[in-house]
């Protein structure tokens, strides 16, 4: 496939291949799921953080981290690894990333810097392949 299209949000990723956007032969190459990103924050945590005391003058504390953000970052790393491996193995010439801006930022920080991707700031994960193509053509021909 000449072009890979990764459509993703924090819990689902769909990797499509296509020879050209002018062609209707879009192929779903693989789907990725990360249900942990959909859980409530408290359900993700396995242990509650707390304070600890070293002596009467010094106090230790924990760093607050959003569990959902940690899971989203883990999933973005997984998807970026798929893309990096595909690029290293010459599986695609062009890459189109269709993600919300925040998730794009998470993926982008894990991508190799030796190739360029087109980013479309939308969540099209619920679109059928044919509708995805129509939306991509409309968006890219603006």
Describe this structure in words.
By secondary structure, the chain is of the alpha/beta class. The chain has a single domain, classed as eRF1 domain 2 (Nucleotidyltransferase, domain 5, 2-Layer Sandwich), CATH 3.30.420.60. It contains 4 helices and 7 strands. The protein has helices at residues 41-44, 67-88, 101-108, 129-140, and strands at residues 3-8, 12-18, 27-33, 52-53, 59-60, 94-98, 118-120. Strands 3-2-1-6-7 form a 5-stranded mixed β-sheet, with helices on both faces. Strands 4-5 form a two-stranded antiparallel sheet. Helix 3 links the parallel strand 6 (94-98) and strand 7. The longest helix is centred in the middle third of the chain and has 22 residues, at 67-88. The model has no long low-confidence stretch (mean pLDDT 84).
């Amino acid at each position: 496939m000449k072009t890979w299209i990764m459509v993703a949000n924090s819990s689902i990723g769909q990797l499509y291949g296509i020879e050209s956007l002018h062609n209707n032969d879009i192929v779903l190459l693989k789907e990725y799921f990360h249900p942990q990103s959909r859980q409530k924050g408290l359900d993700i945590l396995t242990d509650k953080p707390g304070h600890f005391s070293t002596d009467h003058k010094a106090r230790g504390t924990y760093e607050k981290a959003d569990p959902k953000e940690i899971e989203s970052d883990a999933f973005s790393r997984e998807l970026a690894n798929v893309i990096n491996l595909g690029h290293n193995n010459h599986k695609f010439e062009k890459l189109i990333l269709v993600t919300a801006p925040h998730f794009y930022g998470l993926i982008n920080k894990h991508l190799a810097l030796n190739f360029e991707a087109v980013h479309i700031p939308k969540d099209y994960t619920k679109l059928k392949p044919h509708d995805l193509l129509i939306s991509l053509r409309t968006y890219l021909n603006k």
